[in-house]
Amino acid sequence: MWPLVLTLVVATTGAYGAEVCPGLKTMYLPPQCINDRDKCPQNSTLEPASKVCNMCDGCTAYIQKDGECEPTSGISCKPGYECDEQELKCVAKSCSCQYKADNSYYKSWTPRCDGFDYAPVQCKGEKPTGRCFCFDKKGNRIFGEQLWANAENMTCACSRQVQELQDQGRKDVTLHCNEQGNYEELQCDDGLCWCAEEKTGKPISQILPENMMIMLPCYDKLNVGSAYLRQCESLLIAQKKIEIEMAAHNSRNPNFPYVNCELDGSYGAVQQDGNQMYCAWKDKSRIEGYAAELRDMANMNCRCARDKKMYGNLIQHICLGNGNYNHEQYTNNGTRYCVDADGFLDDNACPDSSVSC
């Protein structure tokens, strides 16, 4: 049975002279939508804001995997699939998130997908012991993680927004994300500050100039102090602003020292000391002896070193000298197994794997 969509819309004419849809220029009552995704019929999906002037969720029918299709028929393949013009059937786009999910590309986890793209939150392992990470749309891990058992409110919305702003060319983004990629309550960016809802980042207060942030209800002097930026990002943002100013005058950027910060303002996992890169904790202190030469910086992520620092004996895998997970691991009886960059089982992660994606 199709879900009930109860709508109260007053479409006035005459004095207002316009229809409610699509411009919504007339006076109307907000629609009262009642939806139940479990009641969508087979071969259909509950799509957000797809019905009643894009104000109510509703079921949308799709052609399923390997179903016959016509590119010009107006009926789409299900999200994550496209109509192959040669075979005229719905197929997953090669190497897309949906392709990898349907073909069990990863051995220890199944990616969550938004169409062809990766969903923001990806969880690996088993719920009691696994972890969830923030991902960009292309499947790259970004800032934010949480134990799966504690990740109920994890959205990664802040990490995603910062990533997208940076991809658009913003070098001086100062939004603060918490450890699971959600928004911190106090936010400042581009000279303005506001209180934000954690999961969505939606402003829940006035928006004030940064020099007036102490007037916001979410300002906490003990946690924030007199300056919004933390120690690491203060230097980083100062560098970025100089780069922006010099670029505006067609000047060459100076050779700044390497600065690597996380989106919560702490120091990043990889730090520089002369010609050496080393694995660091959030306060920039060294993590044991994990290090690499400057020329190897691009391949260094220090995830294994940081995980051992954070989780202790729960991490039994062997780290490489540069702090990354060794993709090849061995049990006590010499049996080889493979782990991915986050330390989770994945047969495709070993160097001799023949996978194409």
Automatic annotation (TrEMBL):
| All residue ranges annotated as the Thyroglobulin type-1 domain in the record | 94-154, 155-218
Keyword Signal assigned to the entry: answer is yes
User: Which Pfam families does the UniProt record give?
Assistant: Thyroglobulin_1
What UniProt keywords apply to this chain's record, in alphabetical order? Answer: Disulfide bond, Signal
Disulphide bonds in the chain: C158-C177
- What is the species listed in this Swiss-Prot or TrEMBL entry? Cryptotermes secundus
Its name, as the record gives it, is Thyroglobulin type-1 domain-containing protein
Instruction: Please tell me whether the keyword Signal is annotated for this protein.
Output: yes
UniProt cross-references to SUPFAM superfamilies, sorted A to Z = Thyroglobulin type-1 domain
Instruction: Provide the leader sequence positions.
Output: 1-17
